Amino acid sequence: MKRDTFVNRLVACTLIAAASIAMPALASLSGPLNGDPVHGKALYQGCQACHSIDENDLGPRHRGVVGRRAASVADYSYSAALKNSHLTWDELTFWMT
Ligand code: HEC
């Protein structure tokens, strides 16, 4: 894949993830867990253009991602930026990204 294409897809990922994760994460930070799995499933369909739960695709597999260190799927080739981010994925870091 050309680097420009990769960067564009990464920007798209960041924007989509920020829009669809940050808002519910913010809502849940202000109160008890109040997730809506039906709505979440619908939102996640957009992510499945590049991700799946158990297989690496254009993006890394997602099973167990909450609570996991960023860039820690061993057989996925991450960007240097994510490898050096030292993030752990939780509600706050999803909201920040
Ligand atoms: C256009 C393709 C694309 C879409 C759509 C996409 N992603 Fe991604 N995602 C990627 C790529 C590529 C990476 C790896 C980025 C890197 O190495 O810097 C990634 C990485 C991630 C990571 C980091 C995983 C890890 O192991 O550290 C998370 C979390 C993530 N995406 C969540 C989402 C969510 C949630 C959605 C939907 C709201 C989404 N992505 C939609 C391409 C995409």
Brief account:
The protein is mostly helical and 97 residues long.
By CATH, the topology is Cytochrome Bc1 Complex, Chain D, domain 2
Radius of gyration: 14 Å
**CATH superfamily membership, which one?**
Cytochrome c-like domain
Q: Compute the average pLDDT.
A: 80
The hetero molecules present are: heme C
Estimated share of beta-strand residues: under 5%
Detailed description of the structure:
This protein is mainly alpha-helical and 97 residues long. It has a single domain, classed as Cytochrome Bc1 Complex, Chain D, domain 2. 49% of the residues lie in helices and 0% in strands. The chain contains four helices and no strands. The two termini are 24 Å apart. The relative contact order is 0.14. The chain binds heme C. The site of heme C (HEC) has 26 residues, from helix 1, helix 2 and helix 3. The site of heme C has 26 residues, from helix 1, helix 2 and helix 3.
Sequence-ordered SSE layout with sheet pairings:
Layout (H helix, E strand, L loop, with lengths): L2 H27 L7 H11 L32 H4 L7 H6 L1
The protein binds heme C.
Essential attributes:
97 residues; globular; binds heme C; Cytochrome Bc1 Complex, Chain D, domain 2; mainly alpha; 49% helix
